[in-house]
Amino acid sequence: MTEKRLGDLLQAAVELELSTIPPYLCALYSLRPESNGTARLIIRSVVVEEMLHMVLAANVLNAIGGEPRVTGTEHVPRYPHELPDGVVLDLLPFCPEAVEAFLKVENPQHSHRAPGHDHPLLAGRRPDVQRARATTLAQGPTTIGAFYAEIIEGLEKAAAMLGEQALFCGDPARQITRDYYYAGGGTPVPVTDLASARAALTEIADQGEGDQASMYDKDGDLGHYFRFEQLKYGRSYLPSDDAGTPSGPEIDVEWAAVYPMIANPRGDDYADPELRAASDAANRTWSGLLRQLEAAFNGFPEALLAAVPAMFSLRDRAAVLLANPLPCGGGRHAGPTFEWARESS
Amino acid sequence: MLFPQGAAARTDPQTVSGTIYDAVIVGGGIAGAIVANQLSRAGQRVLLLEAGLGEDLTLEGYEDYLTRFYSAVSKDNQSPYPPNANAPMPRPSQVRKITPGRPDSSGYLVQNGPYATDSTYTRVLGGTTMHWEAKVMRMLPEDFEMASRHGQGLDWPIGYGDIEPYYQAAEREIGVSADVADQAYLGVTYPPGYVFPMRGLPLSYLDKMVAAGVDGTEVEAGGERVALKVRPFPQGRNGIPNPDYDGGRGYIPVGAVSTHQVEEGGRCQGNNNCVPLCPVQAKYHAGKTLAKALGNGVELLAQAVAYRVHTDPVNGRVTHIEFRSYRDPSSPEYVTGTARGRIFVLGASAIENARLMLASGLKSSSGLMGRNLMDHAYLLNWALLPDIAGTGRGTNSTGGIVDLRGGSFRGRHAGFGIDIHNDGWGWATGSPFSDLLHIVDAQHKFGPELRRALVDQVSRQLLLAFMIEVPPSQSNRVTVDPVHRDQLGNMRPVISYSVPDYTMRGAAYGRRLAQRIFERLGAEDYTAYDPADPGYVTYEGQGYAIRGGNHLGGTHIMGTSPANSVVDTALRAWDHQNLYLVGGGAMPTIGTANVTLTIAALCFKSAEHMIEQLRAERAPVALSGSTSGSAQ
Lengths: 345, 632
Known about the structure:
The structure holds two protein chains of two kinds. By secondary structure, chain A is mainly alpha-helical. Helix content of chain A is 47%, strand content 2%. Chain A has helices at 3-29, 37-63, 96-106, 133-136, 144-162, 164-167, 194-209, 224-233, 273-297, 303-322; strands at residues 81-82, 88-89, 130-131. Chain A has a three-stranded mixed beta sheet. Chain B is an alpha+beta fold. Chain B contains 15 helices and 20 strands. In chain B, a hairpin with a 7-residue loop joins strand 9 and strand 10 (334-346).
């Protein structure tokens, strides 16, 4: 594998991890205040770790001298968004279909019947599907697991061919360390060699599906897949439980206590000028946040600290949209569109 | 931090009454939690009695507090915590101006006055650390030697050097964010190479605006020139872990407590309502320590209010604690239970410890039980800055001026620290709600104009809170009176308190200093003290509104002999060789540091002695109160 392809695959990995964030945020922000407390925490915990995954992928790319990109129409995901293995990510409010899609994303082995285009939620709301770079780069059908396996194998071969030092030539100062990123479940691994690259990429896979042999990752955190299963079953997992049979306290899931956002909203859906302005403002905040992330991945890790208030601001702007029923929308509400805005705020 | 599922219901009053524990602890706040954790780690069987409701600490339960706070009209420091007539707590809203000779018994605290305190403590699992601000300064070396150095108050029987290692233990337990370079002043020293668990939290923009005008300003105090400087405070909230901590092993911040895994509280987000409740549990609360203790097998019996400490009349040892166990906070029904152990630990707060002892007829042979009640006296000063200063951003208080915490002037007047309040005038005026009402009702603004006016008003607010030391005074005290009881029949604390002149001289100095600082900043002083304020104190013809600090101490002070104190340096009661009184009550002076860090440090020290005593006394204690136990 050429270094060029390795770089392309890692850039695709950064984008893949980024693309999972808006669907989770839509589900999270669509929860009405003072309801679905546990669901909110579960989704939030996963989305925080997806951010970690993006950081880890960027660290590996930086380690081999790459420049992770997350801004511009070329790199910012659009929805519906197709991942490897035919998983289509839609922007949906919190609903059983969204949880099914999350389960599929977190475990490609999950048998999943994606709601068809004619599903009431999606009817007329799934126009052109954008295919993820991870999909277009693949030489034949692939899965997320196979995609990461290919990267690890590529790194191993390149290290054998070029020598580990020559491959991992990136400036260590560009690595995101725990100084700038912290989440209860998992910490960023600074990547400087093959072992740390492997550790970083394995962490991404483990947090999704748990350790290969267990439902928990090496830190003892329940895998994302199983966290979402708790919402599906309305019951939490105890450490002694087997997969599929959680026996902990009941989780009260109120599917109705949700702002019924339209699926895959676009700025162009908002004819009302005030709504359009609110949507543009949210997109400027989203784009500003992505600029901060890109700066953080390109030599200014401290930009992550300033990204925290930007995330609060994004949440607040999304809430304005979600609380608004669409004129002539049949009871459906507006929602954040996560579109790239050239001007950011 | 995982709270063991079902731990809150591990035992019941009947089981407890039939068991002899190694240690019985009263109170599930930071003191009780640390002692419980230390003793259980050493293999001791521990019972923790908690007066408040005790359910498993779940994130949902915590968020119920949060919802309560969000929806409360008055956002005071007890607003998240529901009323419980069987374990009532003082609330700021209960404070009334006292007419001389007419004690006010309308609130939980019966106040004799002349000063009416609005100080509070929180009777829920986790105690007052649920609502605390989490500012965790160490006491100054001179704070331990006030009598010999300044001729004021009392000397401690231990010095800074004795407590220093325990400060380190407390800083680990709480998870302190600070940089040694900022915190080494006025003689406070650290061992070479010491770093705090997490790096210091940055100064807010408002702090920096104040610093720009204040840093380097020289003031005269006690005949000496002192240069002022805005410094960051050490904080008990999660920041960036310091990789050099613990000899390079680093520190892993402790996040939210719940029975299931949650990803919250890893880092402070600057929500600015640390008091009365951190919305994400990035701020330390004793639930984090309790979860560990319960993980070690500590038995928790909640809704069990200690009613009486029973002692052996021959040797003074505590035989058992009689408690009243209730099911329903609104119903006066209870069953009586008995908690027996080899040692007993009261960690129910300075006021409740003294209240329980006095209600049990245990006044201490020194007669000092309940006396020397102390609390920091807060003097608020508020002004409007000329420019927008970002008020409202950051945690409640990130920085302040601490240069006058110590110095030779303390022979004459009290020392103080100055907090810069990132939450604006809230404490003084009820801002921003009061501002909103004013702009709507008096200025008739609405829509975008209202929003602009509110931002312009609030984001220029500067509140300087002077936290002034209060020396021990035997007439400031907690007593009990059988006439005043709560729903469960427990005698309520009766408080007699006046603010000492020494403190008021410090307040007068502080008021002049605040005026000078405002002048330097070009800020317009809006400070006004209302004679109708329950905390209004007149001193040398000037009136000041003094607020309570919730930093209660001194009701069972530590000393060198049974004649001059209630407890020894191990916090063991001189009169009762198997009873430890922990918490702020053991502090002979409170200096100018918020008390919790020192309380925690003393608990680590005391727990060592408890373990030693338990190991030394192998023989079981006598079960009956009427026969004598083993002599010491």
